[in-house]
């Protein structure tokens, strides 16, 4: 099989297109022919060596799979050859998805939503699971509550807007003026141009000073320090960003705020919940650009570029044009 391997940490040119032996499924595992994968910030963080202690080289990286079951190991009961499936490979737990075939435990694999193409499904698995864990599992977002979503046009953000609306929340989102219409089309009730005005003042204006119940941080920087200024009493802040810079959280203490930090975990349950939203017409990932397997270095360079103009996700068509 062909795979994009990482023999060294570095820039996008660190990848090598290689011919490797096709893996075989063990007990409780499925072998999947990968039709599509996608690019996430985690992917370029791994590539440049941010998690060097957790990624033995040479490595096959990548964190999304949509494809078709090729074979199953002993004891597998939920899937059979020919089934269309999707999932996030076990992060830091073996080879990733930048390859024509991938082996995974059936426990983390779900049946692909029929309403999505392979490119769309691969663009939803990791970010969708992250959003579900952040908003439902950690923040406990409920009907009638309000939420501020930072970076709403991005890979995680554009899914978060849709999941929050499906939950019955009032959604305030930050985005550039260029992306305002796109974010509004996803269901955001209010879109704040973060380049034109301070989001703290804007949120307090929109909520008449009451603040929001939940804040989702997808961008980092000083978000943890500033977001409590828009938070209601007993509000929750959820961040998916690893932040090394110290921040003053005294304002959060005054609001009795809760902080949650999410590094998503794999399981079929979240995929099934997302599939239900897709089937009900409440959730659809946006593929803003697509590349072939050999084009992954170019895709990495694009995603890593500041203000790249992307909306949604970058999809990778691995074994077929989709």
Automatic annotation (TrEMBL):
Main location: cytoplasm
Annotated Gene3D superfamilies: Medium-chain alcohol dehydrogenases, catalytic domain, NAD(P)-binding Rossmann-like Domain
UniProt KW keywords: Cytoplasm, NADP, RNA-binding
Keyword RNA-binding carried by entry: yes
Compartments reported by the entry: Cytoplasm
Listed PROSITE patterns: QOR_ZETA_CRYSTAL
GO MF annotations, alphabetized: oxidoreductase activity; RNA binding; zinc ion binding
Domain Enoyl reductase (ER) intervals: 10-316
Gene Ontology CC terms, in alphabetical order: cytoplasm
The organism's place on the tree of life at top rank: Bacteria
InterPro entries assigned: ADH-like_N, ER, GroES-like_sf, NAD(P)-bd_dom_sf, Quin_OxRdtase/zeta-crystal_CS, Zinc-ADH_QOR/CCCR
Pfam families reported in the protein's UniProt record: ADH_N (PF08240), ADH_zinc_N_2 (PF13602)
Subunit and interaction comment: Homotetramer.
PANTHER family: QUINONE OXIDOREDUCTASE (PTHR44154)
Protein name per its UniProtKB record: Zinc-type alcohol dehydrogenase-like protein
Annotated organism of origin: Palleronia marisminoris
């Amino acid at each position: 099989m062909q795979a994009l391997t990482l023999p060294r940490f570095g820039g996008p040119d660190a990848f090598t297109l290689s011919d490797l032996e096709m893996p075989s499924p063990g007990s409780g595992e499925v072998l999947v022919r990968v039709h599509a994968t996608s690019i996430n910030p985690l992917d370029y963080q791994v590539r440049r060596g941010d998690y060097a202690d957790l990624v033995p080289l040479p490595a096959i990286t990548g964190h999304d799979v949509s494809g078709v079951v090729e074979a199953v190991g002993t004891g597998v009961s939920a899937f059979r050859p020919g089934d269309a499936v999707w999932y996030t490979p076990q992060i830091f737990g073996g080879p990733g998805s930048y390859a024509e075939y991938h082996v995974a435990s059936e426990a983390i694999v779900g049946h692909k939503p029929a309403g999505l193409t392979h490119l769309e499904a691969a663009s939803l698995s990791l970010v969708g699971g992250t959003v579900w864990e952040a908003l439902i599992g950690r923040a406990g977002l409920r009907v009638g509550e309000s939420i501020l979503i930072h970076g709403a046009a991005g890979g995680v953000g554009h899914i978060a807007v849709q999941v929050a609306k499906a939950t019955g929340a009032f959604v305030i989102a930050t985005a550039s003026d260029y992306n305002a219409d796109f974010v509004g089309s996803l269901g955001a009730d209010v879109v704040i141009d973060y380049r034109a005005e301070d989001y703290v003042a804007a949120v307090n204006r929109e909520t008449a000073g009451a603040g929001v119940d939940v804040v989702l941080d997808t961008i980092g920087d000083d978000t943890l320090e500033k977001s409590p200024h828009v938070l209601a009493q007993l509000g929750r802040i959820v961040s998916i960003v690893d932040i090394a810079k110290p921040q003053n959280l005294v304002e959060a203490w005054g609001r009795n705020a809760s902080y949650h930090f999410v590094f998503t975990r794999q399981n079929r349950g979240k995929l099934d919940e997302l599939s239900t939203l897709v089937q009900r017409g409440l959730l659809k990932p946006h593929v803003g650009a697509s590349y072939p397997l050999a084009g992954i270095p170019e895709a990495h360079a694009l995603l890593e570029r500041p203000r790249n103009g992307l909306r949604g996700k970058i999809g990778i068509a691995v074994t077929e044009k989709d």
